[in-house]
Design a protein that fits this description.
Elements (H helix, E strand, L loop, with lengths): L4 H22 L6 H4 L2 E5 L2 E3 L4 E3 L2 E5 L1 H16 L1
Helix pairs in contact: 1-3
InterPro entries: DUF4321
Keywords: Membrane, Transmembrane, Transmembrane helix
Protein name: Membrane protein
C-alpha cells in the first residue's frame, strides 16, 4: 500500500502539537527546563507592488519535546 504525503503531514503536525502541549504542561518543572525551552523561528515576507501589497508573518516555536514528538510521529507513520 502506497502512503500519501497528506497523511505524513497530518502525523507531523499532530506529533508537533503533542510535543508542544507536553512542553507547556512541563514548564513549571524547573529540572526539565532544557526540554521545554522554545526557540522562535520567524519569517516575514512583504511587498508593495503599487496595485498589490502583502505582509505575511509565519512563526514556528520549536523545543526538544516538540522535536521528539515529530520523530515519534515519523516512526509511527513508517510503522503503519
Amino acid at each position: 500500500m502506497k502512503k500519501n504525503i497528506g497523511m505524513l503531514l497530518l502525523y507531523l503536525i499532530l506529533g508537533w502539537l503533542v510535543g508542544a502541549w507536553a512542553a507547556k504542561l512541563l514548564q513549571p518543572v524547573k529540572a526539565l527546563s532544557f526540554l521545554t525551552k522554545s526557540t522562535l523561528i520567524k519569517w516575514s515576507p512583504q511587498a508593495d507592488l503599487d496595485i498589490l501589497s502583502y505582509d505575511v508573518t509565519i512563526q514556528l516555536k520549536l523545543c526538544i519535546l516538540s522535536l521528539i514528538g515529530i520523530i515519534i510521529a515519523v516512526w509511527l507513520y513508517r510503522r503503519k
